[in-house]
Specification:
By secondary structure, the chain is an alpha+beta fold. It has two domains: about 40 residues, Winged helix-like DNA-binding domain superfamily/Winged helix DNA-binding domain (Arc Repressor Mutant, subunit A, Orthogonal Bundle); about 70 residues, Lrp/AsnC effector binding domain/regulation of amino acid metabolism (RAM) domain (Alpha-Beta Plaits, 2-Layer Sandwich). The protein is about 35% helix and about 20% strand. The radius of gyration is 20 Å and the shape is elongated. The N and C termini lie close together (about 10 Å).
Length: about 150
């Protein structure tokens, strides 16, 4: 990956709807060369997908929380992950090292719904402990970090 690839990626991070013509003006390459480089970055798995980022507050999901989850034994991992993948209010699930096994990110409509979600999680077989932290505000939320130019 060279400096031009980094510029292309950063342009797409800033606006994934940028077309090859706009990016070509930015990086100083022909449109066909930009398209070729983007395809290469996709084929290498550097660009995983293009998506839409929704504003939870505008959608009425005013309550966000992080829930740490501890399991009794690793034999419960598969069932826990399956239950989490089926739950629409859980937007992120991270497998951890440390005092807890998983961290879940929740975005939901109100505290009553958060209580139901927490009870759902606690009822998954193998869950032995949870710790819930309500998010008051988010100061930084980068879905993809801007890349630095290679040295």
């Amino acid at each position: 990956m060279d400096k031009i690839d980094v510029k292309i990626i950063n342009a797409l991070i800033n606006n994934s709807r940028s077309n090859a013509s706009e990016i070509s003006d930015l990086v100083g390459l022909s449109v066909s060369a930009v398209i070729e480089r983007i395809k290469k970055l996709e084929n290498l798995g550097i660009i995983k997908k293009y998506t839409v980022i929704l504003d939870n507050e505008v959608l009425g999901k005013d309550v966000s929380a992080l829930i740490m989850v501890g399991l009794e034994h690793p034999k419960f991992n598969e069932g826990f992950v399956g239950a989490v993948l089926e739950h629409d209010d859980i937007s992120e699930c991270h497998y951890l090292a440390g005092d807890f096994d998983y961290q879940l990110k929740i975005a939901t409509y109100n505290t009553k719904r958060l209580e139901r979600i927490l009870n759902d999680i606690k009822s998954i077989p193998g869950v032995s402990k949870t710790k819930t932290m309500v998010i008051l505000s988010t100061l930084k939320n980068e879905y993809s970090n801007i890349l630095r130019k290679p040295k």
